[in-house]
Specification:
binds fe (ii) ion; 6 helices; binds 2-acetamido-2-deoxy-beta-D-glucopyranose; alpha+beta; eight-stranded mixed sheet
């Protein structure tokens, strides 16, 4: 009898999922989850100095950049001056679209968004904002032309906030010279943590991330902390501060909302979804995603990556299964289209899944367990930027078989795409030296090389 049980277990292990997942025993040094005081995010000096400078991709393919900034006192100057490295005598100017908003008793500064287009690929550009002695200069490098074997490295961060731990995470990312653009999986400033959603915390966050976001594009995803829906203070418009401050090139992918869109960058096709917008059948997001996925040409962009805030596979007690209804809606499409990676935040911990799917269940068949699936994405939860809400340190025990690695720590990751088949992924705790990789794996492309990976 005992022998039979052993054989049965062996069989389970070979046919089914191997329960090789590990829960890290790393013990993070305890520190309080408190925001850095507002005074420590000073405005740059000079009258009406441009601040909160950040850039994102401004078109479908990476030849466009949206440059955003705030002028606190006056609407003007509302222009960005830019030039290619080595061509100072060929300066160009683009005017911004300027907006501002009120939130309860807060009034924003002038928020500028200037879209510059038709830049050369893989080229260093400088840009200047402001005037005379309050001019500020920044730079960025455009991505290489879209193509199947173009190496490119993305940084990945989520749920960042503006605590001392957030600063560790961001400083680590900035000192990691590899990252060329950031995939931000939502929950930015956590201004909504404060009474009346004190929107000065949106300003301080803009100043906080400038050291990275002014120099390389951050690709934005909306999280629940972007909602700022507060009927108790008559703030009824979801995403009001976020949508005024963070513009994205959604029209370039025929989206009708900045909350879901896609871009191509180097060898990656990135699809951004909104956990907090309607996604059921017949909704705008559903219709858009349905027609978007077949457009992806893996011979042009081999790496298909989806960003969404609320995770679809996660084994933490915090926010458990909040992403489930969206998973049920969209997971079959992602598996059919061999998505490589799904990156999510929301849970303030780190977790990486096996390649698994759970698409058979139809309420009558009882097939509700995830199974190993070579066509399925790996799901990464990286809501571990280090915000004011603290750590999600309570994992479901025992570790479910779909979970490959999990750890209650803060940090960031990088994804180094090498060519159409190989990408090297590393996750870095923010209390280690920034070169230490606590989790690393070679990802194999699902379209070109769907072999099994091992970490
Ligand atoms: C800029 O110049 C003005 C006068 O031209 C001066 O009042 C101001 O202090 C200067 N600001 C800075 C930051 O140097
Ligand atoms: C907004 O209202 C809060 C609460 O009444 C108050 O503490 C704060 O000073 C006000 N801010 C402004 C800019 O009026
Ligand atoms: C549900 O799945 C079972 C088992 O695969 C299948 O026999 C049945 O037809 C399915 N029901 C529907 C409504 O698709
Ligand atoms: C793709 O990159 C991997 C990792 O650097 C390398 O081992 C492999 O040979 C490359 N493939 C081709 C076709 O160059
Ligand atoms: Fe969240």
């Amino acid at each position: 009898m005992e022998f039979i049980t052993v054989v049965f277990h062996l069989l389970l292990h070979t046919v089914g999922l191997c329960s090789g997942g590990s829960t890290s025993q790393y013990v993070r040094k305890a520190e309080p989850a408190i925001d850095i005081p507002l005074e420590l995010f000073p405005q740059p000096s000079g009258y009406n100095a441009p601040e909160q400078v950040h850039i994102t991709q401004g078109d479908l393919v990476g030849r466009g950049v949206i440059i955003s900034w705030v002028t606190p006192v006056e609407r003007h100057p509302n222009v960005v001056t830019y030039w290619e490295d080595g061509k100072q005598d060929e300066k160009h100017k683009t005017h911004s679209i300027t907006t501002s908003y009120r939130y309860y008793n807060y009034s924003s500064g002038y928020i500028h968004h200037a879209t510059i287009k038709k830049l050369n690929y893989d080229t260093l550009y400088f840009y200047e904002l402001g005037k005379q002695n309050v001019t500020r200069r920044f730079s960025f490098t455009t991505p290489p032309k879209v193509g199947p074997d173009v190496p490119y490295t993305f940084g990945i961060m989520g749920d960042l906030g503006q605590t001392y731990a957030s600063k560790q995470t961001l400083d680590h990312y900035v000192s990691n010279p590899k990252g060329q653009a950031v995939l931000m999986v939502g929950d930015l400033s956590y201004a909504d943590h404060y009474p009346f959603h004190d929107n000065r915390r949106w300003d301080s966050w803009g100043r906080f991330i400038e050291k990275s976001a002014a120099y390389q594009p951050w690709i934005w995803t909306a999280g629940n902390h972007e909602l700022d829906f507060a009927p108790e203070i008559e703030e009824y418009t979801p995403f009001k501060p976020y949508m005024h401050r963070y513009h994205v090139p959604y029209r370039a992918s025929q989206s009708t909302s900045p909350l879901w869109y896609s871009i191509k960058r180097a060898s990656a096709y990135i699809i951004v979804l909104s956990s907090y917008s309607a996604y059921g059948k017949y909704t705008p997001q559903y219709k858009w995603l349905k027609q978007e996925l077949p457009k992806v040409n893996r011979a042009e962009t081999p790496w298909l990556i989806v960003l969404v805030h609320s995770p679809w596979y996660n084994s933490n007690n915090y926010h458990f299964m909040e992403g489930e209804s969206m998973r049920v809606m969209y997971e079959p499409w992602l598996v059919q289209n061999k998505v490589d990676l799904v990156l999510a935040g929301h849970v303030h911990s780190y977790e990486r899944s096996e390649r698994i799917s759970n698409v058979q269940y139809n309420i009558t068949d009882g097939l509700s367990t995830p199974i190993k699936d070579a066509s399925a994405p790996v799901y990464i939860t990286i809501g571990d930027g280090g915000n004011i809400e603290g750590m999600a340190d309570s994992f479901i025990d025992p570790q479910p078989s779909y979970s490959a690695y999990r750890e209650a720590s803060f940090g960031h990751a990088t994804l180094e795409i090498k060519n159409r088949t190989h990408a090297y992924y590393t996750w870095h705790r923010n209390q280690d030296s920034d070169v230490v990789a606590a989790d690393s794996i070679w990802f194999y492309n699902r379209y070109w090389y769907p072999n099994e990976e091992s970490s």
